[in-house]
Design a protein that fits this description.
The longest helix is centred in the C-terminal third of the chain and has 18 residues. By secondary structure, the protein is an alpha/beta fold. The protein has 2 domains: about 120 residues, 3-Layer(aba) Sandwich (Rossmann fold), CATH 3.40.50.300; about 70 residues, Helicase, Ruva Protein, domain 3 (Orthogonal Bundle), CATH 1.10.8. It contains 9 helices and 5 strands, in the order αβαβαβαβαβαααα. The protein has a 5-stranded parallel sheet, covered by helices on one side. Helices cover about 45% and strands about 10% of the residues.
Length: about 220
């Protein structure tokens, strides 16, 4: 009689809610300048500011904190059109998230002009300041916007983020796993998120707790 084939447990990709409150923001030297900017409002060096940093560095979290305390609206840069600009600036405070290539340059130029006319506050986030801008006047305006840079995480922040990202997914880990990950993961926010997602997905699929041995096996096989 043929042996039974054990059913393979499926891992379902579920949305994991992430809190963007001030209490949930992990502070460190890497993001101190960004947090100081938010706390300093409305005493900013310029009414339009750039918050720059790598993927996952906390730009959206800081923008959400500022939006909560200032009453700012928030709009994704790719959704910004010239007709949307007046409504977006209606409250006099606005977050424009994720400015990058292929944005509507006319809309952004209109936004910056109207913000100056109305004395509005605008916080723009991006991984890097836009460099390939065709409109000369817009290019000049963007170069004049002061920037605040978020940096890669130091050891202390990196450890704290491992614990937080696992807690967000209700993934139980101990100190041995944290210490192993700190020394095995590329020192970037994006790599950390990918590693925690991998641990969560595979631990669920295999029906195993996340141990140092499992982390080593998964990272070795997916390196």
């Amino acid at each position: 009689m043929a042996g039974r084939v054990q059913p393979r447990q499926l891992a379902f990709s579920l949305a994991h809610a992430e809190s963007f409150t001030r209490d949930d923001f992990l502070e460190g030297p890497a993001n101190a300048a960004g947090l100081a900017l938010i706390d300093r409002w409305p005493d900013w060096p310029n009414r339009v500011m750039f918050l720059l940093g790598p993927e996952g560095s906390g730009k959206s979290h800081l923008a959400a904190i500022w939006a909560e305390q200032s009453g700012a609206r928030s709009i994704s840069a790719h959704a910004l059109t010239p007709t949307e600009v007046p409504g977006a600036l209606a409250t006099g405070v606005l977050v424009v998230e994720d400015i990058k290539a292929a944005i509507d340059e006319r809309a952004l130029f209109h936004l910056l002009n109207l913000a100056r006319e109305d004395n509005a506050f605008v916080l723009m986030t991006a991984r890097a300041a836009p460099s390939e801008v065709e409109l000369r006047d817009l290019r000049s305006r963007l170069r004049a916007v002061p920037t605040v840079q978020l940096l890669p995480p130091d050891d202390h922040l990196f450890r704290a983020l491992i614990v937080k990202f696992c807690a967000d997914r209700q993934l139980a880990i101990d100190e041995t796993v944290v210490s192993y990950l700190v020394h095995r993961i590329e020192r970037s926010y994006a790599a950390l998120r990918r590693a925690v997602e991998l641990l969560d997905t595979e631990a669920l699929r295999l029906g195993r707790p996340v141990t140092r041995a499992l982390a080593a096996e998964l990272l070795r096989n997916n390196g």
